[in-house]
Amino acid sequence: MAITESLSNCSSSDTGPVIPTTPLVTFLERVQEAALKTFNETNFDPKFYVDLSLKLDLSTTEKAFDELRKSANGSLSVEGLKGFIEKYFEGAGNDMVYIEPVDFVPEPEGFLPKVENPEVRAWALEVHALWKNLSRKVSDEVHKRPELNTILPLPEQVMIPGSRFREVYYWDSYWVIRGLLASKMHETAKAIVTNLIYLIEEYGYVLNGARAYYTNRSQPPLLSAMVHAIYSRTGDMQLVRKSLPALLKEYHFWNSGIHKVTIQDAQSCNHTLNRYYAMWNKPRPESSTIDTKSASNISNVSEKQHFYREVASAAESGWDFSTRWMRNPPDLTTLATTSILPVDLNAYILRMELDIAFLAKVTGDNSTAEHFLKASQARKEAIKSVFWNAEMGQWLDYWLNDSTCQEPQTWEASNRNQNVFASNFIPLWIESFHSDKSLVKKVMESLKKSGLLHAAGIATSLTNSGEQWDFPNGWAPLQHMIVEGLGRSESKKARSAAEDIAVRWIRTNYVGYKKTGTMHEKYDVEKCGEFGGGGEYAPQTGFGWSNGVVLAFLEEFGWPQDRKIGCE
Ligand SMILES: OC[C@H]1O[C@H](O[C@H]2O[C@H](CO)[C@@H](O)[C@H](O)[C@H]2O)[C@H](O)[C@@H](O)[C@@H]1O
């Protein structure tokens, strides 16, 4: 359903805050632009250039670049630019150095006790060993001279997703941590949380990723879920005490200003819900050349800025990019992320409220616990009233009439986005919903009929748009949240549906690994053993959250001796 006509025009002009980036990032974007023109590569990756570290200070490097351009009359030669990059920059990725995880052992005691099949066990140990490939710490050089680098000087070791993603990412870290817990690597899991807390202390929220060009947005907020998961395994009270002030600060970030919207429902009740809203209105530095091209047909300056904000806000959602955020799919220029109240974001914030209530209670802070419990009850009502569609048995994203005009907006049934996305099932992940047996039954039936379930897992959407957060791609985090929601229900049928999806997902990851020797960032749910594609960058391997979800699934469901592991 294309939503254009009913929406007023004032949403197309740009308003909202902008967090300026650093002069280094701006300079690296110039190098990126020059590299695209000069190298003319088919596989050009703009992110590579904004990940470079300087050998000398910025003004010296900038001066040398300007001189080079002047001497070449603006048109650089391949050798000239290559020589300049070699002379003035460290290689991308040198800012993060390998570190042996302190708690890695090749076969941890009590590792995946329910995995009986020897082939699967051997593979699970190989996936476990991949933590060694992904383990990094910020180099001493960066700590000495942070201004020469776009990597941020994190205090502890991290797990990176892999390949072009050479830095820690916010929401990826939740599934990395779930995998680390299955691998009994509790210290590494805690170190990741310490880094994310550091980002909240420095910036007020957890950044999309730990680079200077990600300071204008966050990502799906799952820090509370990380702390909850680690505490449940380790009982570490010190971690809880250290995390709580940061979680309160993060909660404030999401529940104030631009991220907060009030909706009046059909019964005239006001509800507060949240949306993604990046504090940026220029091309994303890591994809500057791509965004500039995408916006090339938009001539009005304010409309261009608005488009860039919608692009960055889609990146904040973690679903970059998807028809989910487009008024006229698959036209990327119609991205309207800030005009949507997303089901999944609000489920995550409900989870944050419940987690904070739980964590406050264990520290004995009953008044904070009470306050957040109340907030969670209000949000549960809001999710029911604004998103739930009983006929479809799904929670639907809600289109705001406008992203800038007066509040409260009045809820209208026609503003619900009736298209099917995996996110329509994410509330199941939250205890408040999966504890309701009849609700789970309804949602599970809906999932089965939705068209999302395929041979190799749950598709992201039903639209094959060429974007990576659409059909036929399946992503580990989405499989995990839906499976965990169904699996934690009291319904036997839901638990068996959960296991069925997990088995399909494990099989495709296994066969893909055997074929290519690596784990992938996303998979094609129509073809068992095939990795996914689409989007603005080449498919990536490594891969943090895929490894984490396979280990978490194997820990939960095991693998019997006689169950076949190949594609069916
Ligand atoms: O460089 C383009 C975009 O890449 C990131 O997004 C994708 O990778 C992330 C790391 O695995 C993942 O968290 C995200 O869901 C993916 O879509 C990055 O997060 C974007 O901000 C960036 O523009």
Automatic annotation (TrEMBL):
SUPFAM superfamilies: Six-hairpin glycosidases (SSF48208). Keywords: Glycosidase, Hydrolase. Its EC number is 3.2.1.28. The keyword Hydrolase applies. It is an enzyme of class 3 (hydrolase). Gene3D superfamilies: 1.50.10.10. One of its GO terms (biological process) is trehalose catabolic process. One of its GO terms (molecular function) is alpha,alpha-trehalase activity. Belongs to the glycosyl hydrolase 37 family. This is Trehalase. It comes from Quercus rubra (Northern red oak).
